[in-house]
Amino acid sequence: MTKPLKQIHLAAHFPGVNNTTVWSDPRAGSHIEFSSFAHFARTAERAKFDFLFLAEGLRLREQGGKIYDLDVVGRPDTFTVLAALAAVTDHLGLTGTINSTFNEPYEVARQFASLDHLSGGRSAWNVVTSWDAFTGENFRRGGFLPQEERYSRAKEFLATANELFDSWRGDEILADQETGRFLADAKAGAFVHTGAHFDIHGRFNVPRSPQGRPVVFQAGDSDEGREFAAKEADAIFSRHGTLAAGQAFYTDVKARLPKYGRGRDQLLILPAATFALADTDAEAEELAREVRRQQVSGATALKHLEFVWNRDLSAYDPDGPLPDIDPDVGGDHISQGRAQVRMYRDPVATAREWRELAAANQWSIRDLVIHTGNRQNFVGSPATIARSLNDFVQADASDGFILVPHTTPTGLDEFADKVVPLLQEQGVFRTEYEGTTLRDHLGLAHPDGIRDERAAS
Q: Does some domain include residue 2?
């Protein structure tokens, strides 16, 4: 019996603080002006994408005590942007990264419930933690939470938020048919939570929203993060972009679901994916090489090397050889607010490996960073990329992709116009939205036992 084709889920990632955006491209626009967000969201909705994904940056990154100015240096508030986008879109899901370390459950639950009302049931929450005291200083909490406790707080944070969402039930809401106002009985919104991280009680003041709860995303890749996702999340924003790594991750996480009474279709795996699209495969390959060189300028290459060496390398020639000195493994790190710092657990071993690679290939510092950094996941003509995307999903390496273009806000336009129609022709991607909420788009059930009476009437 032929296995039915899986439907591909597609989403669009508006890049935040990143090393992906090619700022030298004349098409690169503002990451602050609302017109950029609006264009990006409208393109994603025109292509019938599931959702837009908005990252968050709680502190400007620094290197050597100075603002790191080689990528975006600002980020407007996530909820403000998503609420504004709700007014210029009708179907597109609106996903925001909101930190569980430096916020409080009541305020976050209230914001997401409000966004879900404003958007008609299209909100989603990417639950993240923060491990560094550097970011915490913005909240007068620098170092207040040991790294090993971040998931403990995240789990209780999400559980507490769900208690607040669930404190309004459908049978507690009465609608005045003449005025359209909602009335509630004495039980509505009442909550009590006592735990290791939160001890709160009171009354939640936002009625039940169209989805009941926002869709929950999780992005951690550790064993603890995978377990958290298997138990609590609706989707994972993963980083595994190759077929073999994607299949291994997919198999591992899906296998964890039964212990929590969940089926394979109750958790979607959606890796981030970049692409280089051109009329022919050869042109796309050339474009990919050009984009990589634009993404890694000489200054960027030196800064990237400093992540590992933990030294000021500004005196080195980026087109010259790698430093022959070893990384400084003592004292404070030269880079603050950067996830990359954690990627190199053994800087001395990494430096040795990189020197050997550079020597064997006659690479300069810049060449090394270009070749060892992230590459485009999909490169080719529209037909090639459509086929590759579909092959990846049908091989159970993912359930779809969150696309990250290298220019914003127009970097998604060509994909929407040339690749999406091919996926639709193959019958693996929708031609129209079939529901109204993000849970509908993702094929996810509403929370058990919870029903929005207004949506049903």
A: no
Q: Which two tokens stand for residue 294?
A: 């634009």
- Are 358 and 387 members of one domain? no
- 3-state secondary structure at position 118: helix
Residue 142: domain span? 9-280+376-456
Is residue 4 situated within a structural domain? no
Same domain, 177 and 275: yes
Same domain, 366 and 387: no
The contacts found for 313-318 with CB under 8 angstroms, 24 or more apart, are: 316/365, 317/364, 317/365, 318/364, 318/365, 318/366
425-445 confidence digits (pLDDT tens): 999 999 999 999 999 999 999
- pTM value surpassing 0.85: yes
Q: Is 289 helix (H, G, I), strand (E, B) or coil?
A: helix
- The answer to whether residue 134 is domain-embedded is yes
Q: Give pLDDT tens digits for 237-283.
A: 888 878 999 999 999 999 999 999 999 999 999 999 999 999 999 99
- What DSSP string runs through 403-437? E--SSTTTTTHHHHHHTHHHHHHTTSS-SS---SS
Helix (H) or strand (E) segment spanning residue 9: strand 9-14
